[in-house]
């Protein structure tokens, strides 16, 4: 039996911390709470966290600054808590690698649904056991290994992806040369019930383009279709053999945390 997901809640509002801790624990989660970024930094090395719920409006070091630090440590999924008026901060948070956001005030059940969806995408909770895929997927010189959830560049070097970036790439690869609207991408990635936010898709595509070294101003791989959406303009090949590991061996620095 798998252990319950361990969630780090970072929020300076004691009432919210207590409410979330009790609610998530009733939903079979293990919760550690921190009142600010300083305390969260202290708690970070003491546990193996599956997800972080992070309020952006923290005293002292902001949630965005802590998210930036956290991304330097790990690819642990991040769900942001934001005020309705903080659209710019939401966009910056998504660009930093956050996986989802919930606007305050929020329903705890909505937050729970977002957490479970993000954990499923990251393979951390609630996903049905599956046989690892036997094939690697190659496109435009890149290789995607679904069994290991990793991406190799044309030189065979691993390029770390967050859970959200990996899922977006899989959606595009599975539907290569097909135009996918923002609404379609939202539905495929997390479902309409998660609350569509078109700018989040644009930010996610921009981050993935940078990982794929695809010029955002003149992309040749993930193309923007005016008034339509996005399309992966590449021939996709599924193969049984896997490319050899990169010459420099393991890649502990920046490798995705499973």
UniProtKB/TrEMBL annotation:
- Annotated Gene3D superfamilies: 3.40.50.2300, 6.10.250.690, Winged helix-like DNA-binding domain superfamily/Winged helix DNA-binding domain
Question: What SUPFAM superfamilies does the record tag this protein with?
Answer: C-terminal effector domain of the bipartite response regulators, CheY-like
Q: Where does it live in the cell?
A: Cytoplasm
Q: Where does the record place the OmpR/PhoB-type domain? A: 134-234
Q: Where does the Response regulatory domain lie?
A: 6-119
Q: Which PANTHER family match?
A: DNA-BINDING DUAL TRANSCRIPTIONAL REGULATOR OMPR, REGULATOR OF RPOS
According to the entry, DNA is bound by residues in 134-234
Q: Does the keyword Transcription regulation apply?
A: yes
Biological process, per Gene Ontology: regulation of DNA-templated transcription
Q: Which Pfam families match?
A: Response_reg, Trans_reg_C
> What is any one of the record's Gene Ontology cellular component terms?
protein-DNA complex
Which CDD domains does the record match to this protein? trans_reg_C
Residue numbers carrying 4-aspartylphosphate: 55
- Which UniProt keywords are present, listed alphabetically? Cytoplasm, DNA-binding, Phosphoprotein, Transcription, Transcription regulation, Two-component regulatory system
Q: What protein name does the entry list?
A: Regulatory protein VirG
Q: Which GO terms describe its molecular function?
A: phosphorelay response regulator activity; transcription cis-regulatory region binding
